[in-house]
Amino acid sequence: MKLPVPDEKQFTAPAHNERVTSKIGLALAVTFTTCFVTGLISHLIQHPPSWFFWPSRPVGLYRVTQGLHVISGVASIPLLLAKLWSVYPKLFGRPLVRSLPHAVERLSILVLSGSAFFELTTGLLNVAQNYPWGFYFPQVHYAVAWLAIGSILVHVAVKLPIIRRALTRVTAEEEPPPAAGLSRRGFLLTTGLTTGVAVVATAGATVPFLRGVSGLAWKTSKGTQNLPVNRTAAAAGVTQSARAASWRLAVVTPRGTATFSLDELRALPQTTAELPIACVEGWSQSATWRGISLPTLLKATGAQPGTTVRVSSLERSGLYGSSVLPGEHTADELTLLALELNGEVLDIDHGFPCRIIAPNRPGVLQTKWVTKLEAL
Ligand SMILES: Nc1nc2c(c(=O)[nH]1)N[C@H]1C(S)=C(S)[C@@H](COP(=O)(O)O)O[C@H]1N2
Ligand SMILES: [Mo]
Q1: Distance from the CA of 175 to the center of ligand 2, in angstroms?
Q2: pLDDT digits over 175-223, tens only?
Q3: Do 67 and 202 lie in a common domain?
Q4: Residue 351 CA: which ligand 1 atom is closest?
Q5: Rounded CA gap, 353 and 50, in Å?
Q6: pTM listed for this prediction
Q7: What is the DSSP letter of 59?
Q8: Which residues have CB less than 5 Å away from ligand 2 (the ion)?
Protein backbone atom coordinates (compact mmCIF):
# COMPACT_ATOMS: atom_id res chain seq x y z
CA MET A 1 0.00 0.00 0.00
CA LYS A 2 1.24 3.44 -0.84
CA LEU A 3 0.48 6.23 1.60
CA PRO A 4 -0.33 9.54 -0.08
CA VAL A 5 2.31 12.18 0.71
CA PRO A 6 0.65 15.55 1.23
CA ASP A 7 1.73 18.46 -0.87
CA GLU A 8 2.79 21.82 0.58
CA LYS A 9 -0.19 23.49 -1.14
CA GLN A 10 -2.68 21.37 0.76
CA PHE A 11 -2.00 23.27 4.00
CA THR A 12 -4.32 26.22 3.80
CA ALA A 13 -4.55 27.56 7.38
CA PRO A 14 -4.11 31.35 7.29
CA ALA A 15 -1.13 31.19 9.67
CA HIS A 16 0.95 29.36 7.04
CA ASN A 17 1.97 32.67 5.63
CA GLU A 18 5.29 34.46 5.25
CA ARG A 19 4.04 37.61 6.91
CA VAL A 20 3.02 35.68 10.03
CA THR A 21 6.29 33.74 9.97
CA SER A 22 8.33 36.94 9.62
CA LYS A 23 6.54 38.74 12.45
CA ILE A 24 7.03 35.83 14.85
CA GLY A 25 10.57 35.44 13.54
CA LEU A 26 11.31 39.05 14.40
CA ALA A 27 10.05 38.61 17.96
CA LEU A 28 12.06 35.40 18.23
CA ALA A 29 15.19 37.16 16.99
CA VAL A 30 14.83 39.72 19.79
CA THR A 31 14.21 37.18 22.58
CA PHE A 32 16.88 34.78 21.34
CA THR A 33 19.55 37.47 20.96
CA THR A 34 18.77 38.78 24.45
CA CYS A 35 19.04 35.24 25.78
CA PHE A 36 22.33 34.61 23.98
CA VAL A 37 24.02 37.85 25.09
CA THR A 38 22.94 37.55 28.73
CA GLY A 39 23.97 33.88 28.75
CA LEU A 40 27.36 34.79 27.35
CA ILE A 41 27.81 37.38 30.11
CA SER A 42 26.95 34.80 32.76
CA HIS A 43 29.37 32.31 31.24
CA LEU A 44 32.20 34.87 31.11
CA ILE A 45 31.69 35.86 34.75
CA GLN A 46 31.93 32.22 35.81
CA HIS A 47 34.87 31.38 33.53
CA PRO A 48 36.64 34.71 33.07
CA PRO A 49 39.28 34.89 30.34
CA SER A 50 42.13 37.30 31.09
CA TRP A 51 40.66 40.11 28.96
CA PHE A 52 37.27 39.98 30.68
CA PHE A 53 36.22 42.59 33.21
CA TRP A 54 33.00 42.52 35.24
CA PRO A 55 32.40 45.43 37.64
CA SER A 56 31.22 45.05 41.22
CA ARG A 57 28.63 47.80 40.71
CA PRO A 58 25.75 48.32 40.24
CA VAL A 59 25.13 45.65 42.87
CA GLY A 60 22.05 44.23 41.12
CA LEU A 61 23.26 44.23 37.51
CA TYR A 62 23.73 40.46 37.30
CA ARG A 63 20.32 40.04 38.87
CA VAL A 64 18.92 41.91 35.87
CA THR A 65 21.00 40.19 33.16
CA GLN A 66 20.30 36.70 34.49
CA GLY A 67 16.63 37.47 35.08
CA LEU A 68 16.49 38.59 31.44
CA HIS A 69 18.27 35.41 30.38
CA VAL A 70 15.62 33.17 31.89
CA ILE A 71 12.66 35.38 30.91
CA SER A 72 13.77 35.74 27.29
CA GLY A 73 14.46 32.01 27.09
CA VAL A 74 11.00 31.19 28.40
CA ALA A 75 9.42 33.68 25.99
CA SER A 76 11.27 32.00 23.12
CA ILE A 77 9.55 28.64 23.68
CA PRO A 78 6.00 29.55 22.54
CA LEU A 79 7.45 31.80 19.85
CA LEU A 80 9.58 28.97 18.46
CA LEU A 81 6.64 26.56 18.50
CA ALA A 82 4.41 29.09 16.74
CA LYS A 83 7.06 29.78 14.14
CA LEU A 84 7.59 26.09 13.44
CA TRP A 85 3.83 25.67 13.11
CA SER A 86 3.58 28.48 10.60
CA VAL A 87 6.27 26.99 8.34
CA TYR A 88 5.91 23.24 8.76
CA PRO A 89 4.05 22.70 5.42
CA LYS A 90 7.38 23.54 3.79
CA LEU A 91 8.56 20.13 4.99
CA PHE A 92 6.32 18.76 2.26
CA GLY A 93 7.62 21.07 -0.44
CA ARG A 94 8.89 19.11 -3.46
CA PRO A 95 11.40 18.55 -4.88
CA LEU A 96 13.19 17.91 -1.57
CA VAL A 97 16.34 19.61 -2.78
CA ARG A 98 16.26 22.15 -5.56
CA SER A 99 19.86 23.31 -5.62
CA LEU A 100 23.04 23.35 -3.56
CA PRO A 101 22.15 26.62 -1.75
CA HIS A 102 18.70 25.20 -1.12
CA ALA A 103 20.23 22.06 0.39
CA VAL A 104 22.52 24.13 2.63
CA GLU A 105 19.59 26.24 3.70
CA ARG A 106 17.49 23.21 4.63
CA LEU A 107 20.40 21.74 6.56
CA SER A 108 20.92 25.00 8.46
CA ILE A 109 17.24 24.99 9.41
CA LEU A 110 17.64 21.49 10.78
CA VAL A 111 20.63 22.59 12.89
CA LEU A 112 18.76 25.72 13.93
CA SER A 113 15.59 23.95 15.07
CA GLY A 114 17.53 21.22 16.83
CA SER A 115 19.91 23.50 18.70
CA ALA A 116 17.24 26.07 19.60
CA PHE A 117 14.98 23.33 20.89
CA PHE A 118 17.85 21.80 22.88
CA GLU A 119 18.77 25.15 24.47
CA LEU A 120 15.24 25.97 25.48
CA THR A 121 14.40 22.56 26.96
CA THR A 122 17.68 22.12 28.86
CA GLY A 123 17.41 25.69 30.13
CA LEU A 124 13.85 25.18 31.28
CA LEU A 125 14.69 21.89 33.00
CA ASN A 126 17.57 23.61 34.73
CA VAL A 127 15.28 26.34 36.02
CA ALA A 128 12.84 23.72 37.26
CA GLN A 129 15.14 21.05 38.64
CA ASN A 130 18.16 22.75 40.02
CA TYR A 131 21.23 21.32 38.25
CA PRO A 132 20.20 17.76 37.40
CA TRP A 133 23.24 17.47 35.13
CA GLY A 134 26.08 18.78 37.28
CA PHE A 135 28.97 20.11 35.20
CA TYR A 136 27.64 18.70 31.99
CA PHE A 137 24.73 21.11 31.68
CA PRO A 138 26.45 24.54 31.62
CA GLN A 139 29.16 23.39 29.23
CA VAL A 140 26.85 21.77 26.73
CA HIS A 141 24.27 24.54 27.05
CA TYR A 142 27.06 27.01 26.32
CA ALA A 143 28.49 25.12 23.34
CA VAL A 144 25.11 24.53 21.70
CA ALA A 145 24.26 28.23 22.16
CA TRP A 146 26.96 29.06 19.59
CA LEU A 147 25.49 26.52 17.21
CA ALA A 148 22.06 28.07 17.64
CA ILE A 149 23.14 31.69 17.22
CA GLY A 150 25.34 30.79 14.24
CA SER A 151 22.57 28.99 12.41
CA ILE A 152 20.15 31.82 13.21
CA LEU A 153 22.51 34.29 11.57
CA VAL A 154 22.77 32.10 8.47
CA HIS A 155 19.01 31.66 8.40
CA VAL A 156 18.27 35.39 8.69
CA ALA A 157 20.86 36.20 6.02
CA VAL A 158 19.35 33.66 3.62
CA LYS A 159 15.77 34.78 4.30
CA LEU A 160 16.42 38.52 4.37
CA PRO A 161 14.74 39.20 1.00
CA ILE A 162 11.61 37.30 2.05
CA ILE A 163 11.57 38.93 5.50
CA ARG A 164 11.85 42.37 3.94
CA ARG A 165 9.14 41.64 1.40
CA ALA A 166 6.83 40.12 4.00
CA LEU A 167 7.18 42.92 6.51
CA THR A 168 6.89 45.85 4.13
CA ARG A 169 4.06 44.71 1.87
CA VAL A 170 0.73 46.44 2.27
CA THR A 171 -1.78 43.89 3.53
CA ALA A 172 -4.91 44.84 1.59
CA GLU A 173 -4.07 43.12 -1.69
CA GLU A 174 -3.37 39.78 -0.16
CA GLU A 175 -6.20 39.22 2.27
CA PRO A 176 -6.85 35.50 1.89
CA PRO A 177 -10.16 33.98 1.00
CA PRO A 178 -11.85 33.01 4.25
CA ALA A 179 -10.39 29.67 5.29
CA ALA A 180 -11.18 27.33 8.11
CA GLY A 181 -9.36 27.79 11.42
CA LEU A 182 -7.72 30.67 13.21
CA SER A 183 -7.19 33.87 11.25
CA ARG A 184 -3.70 35.29 10.93
CA ARG A 185 -4.44 38.02 13.39
CA GLY A 186 -5.96 35.45 15.75
CA PHE A 187 -2.85 33.27 15.47
CA LEU A 188 -0.50 36.17 16.21
CA LEU A 189 -2.65 37.25 19.13
CA THR A 190 -2.71 33.74 20.59
CA THR A 191 1.07 33.48 20.21
CA GLY A 192 1.50 36.84 21.94
CA LEU A 193 -0.81 35.91 24.79
CA THR A 194 0.82 32.52 25.34
CA THR A 195 4.23 34.19 25.42
CA GLY A 196 2.93 36.75 27.90
CA VAL A 197 1.54 34.08 30.19
CA ALA A 198 4.81 32.10 30.03
CA VAL A 199 6.79 35.22 30.93
CA VAL A 200 4.55 36.17 33.85
CA ALA A 201 4.69 32.58 35.11
CA THR A 202 8.48 32.78 35.43
CA ALA A 203 9.24 36.44 36.00
CA GLY A 204 8.01 36.36 39.60
CA ALA A 205 11.18 34.49 40.50
CA THR A 206 13.04 37.74 40.11
CA VAL A 207 10.51 40.59 39.84
CA PRO A 208 9.11 41.08 43.37
CA PHE A 209 5.63 42.44 42.49
CA LEU A 210 4.94 39.45 40.20
CA ARG A 211 5.76 36.89 42.88
CA GLY A 212 2.17 36.22 43.88
CA VAL A 213 1.04 35.32 40.34
CA SER A 214 4.06 33.31 39.23
CA GLY A 215 3.54 29.58 39.20
CA LEU A 216 7.16 28.83 38.39
CA ALA A 217 8.54 31.11 41.09
CA TRP A 218 8.18 28.58 43.89
CA LYS A 219 11.88 28.83 44.79
CA THR A 220 11.44 32.21 46.38
CA SER A 221 8.92 30.94 48.91
CA LYS A 222 11.12 28.26 50.50
CA GLY A 223 14.07 28.62 52.82
CA THR A 224 15.05 29.90 56.23
CA GLN A 225 15.50 33.55 57.29
CA ASN A 226 13.24 34.75 54.51
CA LEU A 227 15.60 33.64 51.74
CA PRO A 228 15.49 30.55 49.49
CA VAL A 229 18.08 27.87 50.16
CA ASN A 230 19.89 26.47 47.19
CA ARG A 231 21.79 23.61 48.84
CA THR A 232 21.28 22.66 52.47
CA ALA A 233 24.06 21.97 54.95
CA ALA A 234 22.86 18.37 55.17
CA ALA A 235 23.05 17.94 51.38
CA ALA A 236 26.53 19.46 51.39
CA GLY A 237 27.62 17.17 54.25
CA VAL A 238 28.82 20.02 56.47
CA THR A 239 26.34 19.91 59.37
CA GLN A 240 28.99 18.77 61.84
CA SER A 241 32.08 20.52 60.53
CA ALA A 242 30.25 23.86 60.33
CA ARG A 243 29.16 23.64 63.97
CA ALA A 244 32.44 22.20 65.32
CA ALA A 245 34.07 24.13 68.14
CA SER A 246 37.36 23.62 66.32
CA TRP A 247 36.17 25.59 63.25
CA ARG A 248 38.61 28.32 62.20
CA LEU A 249 38.92 30.61 59.22
CA ALA A 250 42.38 30.51 57.63
CA VAL A 251 43.52 33.55 55.68
CA VAL A 252 46.60 32.74 53.60
CA THR A 253 48.67 35.69 52.39
CA PRO A 254 52.31 36.10 51.28
CA ARG A 255 52.97 37.05 54.92
CA GLY A 256 51.80 33.67 56.19
CA THR A 257 48.56 32.17 57.47
CA ALA A 258 46.32 33.96 59.94
CA THR A 259 43.53 32.04 61.66
CA PHE A 260 40.35 33.43 63.20
CA SER A 261 37.78 31.87 65.50
CA LEU A 262 34.18 32.96 65.09
CA ASP A 263 34.47 35.24 68.13
CA GLU A 264 37.57 36.84 66.68
CA LEU A 265 35.72 37.51 63.42
CA ARG A 266 32.84 39.07 65.38
CA ALA A 267 35.30 41.35 67.11
CA LEU A 268 36.45 42.86 63.80
CA PRO A 269 34.66 45.97 62.41
CA GLN A 270 31.36 44.91 60.78
CA THR A 271 29.68 46.24 57.64
CA THR A 272 25.97 45.99 56.77
CA ALA A 273 24.85 45.71 53.14
CA GLU A 274 21.62 45.09 51.25
CA LEU A 275 22.59 42.63 48.50
CA PRO A 276 20.74 40.12 46.32
CA ILE A 277 21.45 36.44 45.83
CA ALA A 278 20.97 36.09 42.06
CA CYS A 279 20.99 32.43 41.13
CA VAL A 280 21.91 31.39 37.60
CA GLU A 281 18.58 29.56 37.52
CA GLY A 282 16.91 32.95 37.39
CA TRP A 283 15.49 33.39 40.89
CA SER A 284 16.86 36.26 42.89
CA GLN A 285 16.15 37.86 46.22
CA SER A 286 17.56 40.73 48.20
CA ALA A 287 18.56 40.45 51.85
CA THR A 288 20.37 42.37 54.56
CA TRP A 289 23.82 40.97 55.26
CA ARG A 290 26.31 41.84 57.98
CA GLY A 291 29.92 40.79 58.32
CA ILE A 292 33.53 41.78 57.69
CA SER A 293 34.22 43.55 54.42
CA LEU A 294 36.95 41.93 52.34
CA PRO A 295 39.11 45.09 52.31
CA THR A 296 38.94 45.18 56.13
CA LEU A 297 39.81 41.50 56.45
CA LEU A 298 42.67 41.70 53.94
CA LYS A 299 44.16 44.75 55.66
CA ALA A 300 43.86 42.99 59.04
CA THR A 301 46.03 40.18 57.69
CA GLY A 302 48.54 42.42 55.94
CA ALA A 303 47.27 41.81 52.39
CA GLN A 304 46.18 44.38 49.83
CA PRO A 305 42.53 44.96 48.97
CA GLY A 306 42.39 44.38 45.22
CA THR A 307 44.30 41.11 45.21
CA THR A 308 42.58 38.07 43.77
CA VAL A 309 41.32 35.74 46.50
CA ARG A 310 40.40 32.07 46.32
CA VAL A 311 37.56 31.07 48.65
CA SER A 312 37.25 27.49 49.92
CA SER A 313 34.26 25.90 51.62
CA LEU A 314 34.03 23.12 54.18
CA GLU A 315 32.03 21.39 51.45
CA ARG A 316 34.37 18.99 49.71
CA SER A 317 32.12 16.95 47.46
CA GLY A 318 30.03 19.44 45.48
CA LEU A 319 30.77 21.45 42.37
CA TYR A 320 30.53 24.75 44.20
CA GLY A 321 32.97 24.23 47.04
CA SER A 322 35.28 27.03 45.93
CA SER A 323 35.23 30.30 44.00
CA VAL A 324 37.61 33.08 43.04
CA LEU A 325 37.00 36.72 43.95
CA PRO A 326 38.63 39.05 41.40
CA GLY A 327 40.46 42.17 42.59
CA GLU A 328 37.54 44.36 41.62
CA HIS A 329 35.47 42.57 44.25
CA THR A 330 38.08 42.23 47.01
CA ALA A 331 38.56 46.01 46.86
CA ASP A 332 34.83 46.67 47.22
CA GLU A 333 33.60 47.53 50.74
CA LEU A 334 30.35 45.73 49.97
CA THR A 335 32.01 42.35 49.44
CA LEU A 336 31.44 40.65 52.77
CA LEU A 337 32.42 37.59 54.67
CA ALA A 338 28.92 37.52 56.14
CA LEU A 339 28.14 36.35 59.68
CA GLU A 340 24.54 37.55 59.81
CA LEU A 341 21.51 37.51 57.55
CA ASN A 342 18.37 39.63 58.00
CA GLY A 343 19.34 40.56 61.56
CA GLU A 344 20.12 37.02 62.80
CA VAL A 345 23.14 34.79 63.05
CA LEU A 346 23.50 33.12 59.63
CA ASP A 347 21.42 29.94 59.47
CA ILE A 348 23.48 26.82 58.80
CA ASP A 349 21.69 26.36 55.46
CA HIS A 350 22.79 29.86 54.43
CA GLY A 351 26.44 29.16 55.23
CA PHE A 352 27.09 29.37 59.00
CA PRO A 353 29.61 30.16 60.37
CA CYS A 354 30.43 32.48 57.44
CA ARG A 355 29.83 32.88 53.74
CA ILE A 356 30.79 35.16 50.89
CA ILE A 357 28.24 37.68 49.66
CA ALA A 358 29.54 40.04 47.00
CA PRO A 359 27.79 42.67 44.89
CA ASN A 360 26.89 41.93 41.27
CA ARG A 361 27.81 38.23 41.16
CA PRO A 362 26.09 34.97 40.22
CA GLY A 363 24.70 33.12 43.25
CA VAL A 364 26.83 30.14 42.37
CA LEU A 365 29.95 32.14 43.33
CA GLN A 366 28.54 33.23 46.73
CA THR A 367 30.34 30.41 48.55
CA LYS A 368 28.83 29.13 51.80
CA TRP A 369 30.53 27.53 54.88
CA VAL A 370 33.83 29.26 54.16
CA THR A 371 36.92 27.89 55.87
CA LYS A 372 39.81 29.35 53.88
CA LEU A 373 40.70 32.50 51.94
CA GLU A 374 43.91 32.60 49.90
CA ALA A 375 45.41 35.72 48.39
CA LEU A 376 46.62 34.59 44.95
N1 LIG B 1 29.56 25.65 49.43
C2 LIG B 1 28.52 25.96 48.62
N3 LIG B 1 28.19 27.26 48.45
C4 LIG B 1 27.16 27.60 47.64
C5 LIG B 1 26.42 26.62 46.94
C6 LIG B 1 26.78 25.26 47.13
O7 LIG B 1 26.18 24.33 46.57
N8 LIG B 1 27.84 24.97 47.97
N9 LIG B 1 25.39 27.00 46.10
C10 LIG B 1 25.51 28.35 45.54
C11 LIG B 1 24.34 28.76 44.80
S12 LIG B 1 24.09 28.02 43.27
C13 LIG B 1 23.51 29.78 45.22
S14 LIG B 1 22.26 30.35 44.24
C15 LIG B 1 23.68 30.38 46.54
C16 LIG B 1 22.38 30.36 47.30
O17 LIG B 1 22.56 30.79 48.62
P18 LIG B 1 21.47 30.48 49.70
O19 LIG B 1 21.25 29.00 49.72
O20 LIG B 1 21.97 31.04 50.98
O21 LIG B 1 20.23 31.22 49.24
O22 LIG B 1 24.67 29.73 47.31
C23 LIG B 1 25.84 29.40 46.60
N24 LIG B 1 26.86 28.92 47.51
MO1 LIG C 1 22.49 29.17 42.25
Answers
A1: 50
A2: 556 567 789 999 999 999 999 998 888 887 666 666 655 555 555 557 8
A3: yes
A4: 20
A5: 33
A6: 0.92
A7: T
A8: 230, 279, 363-364
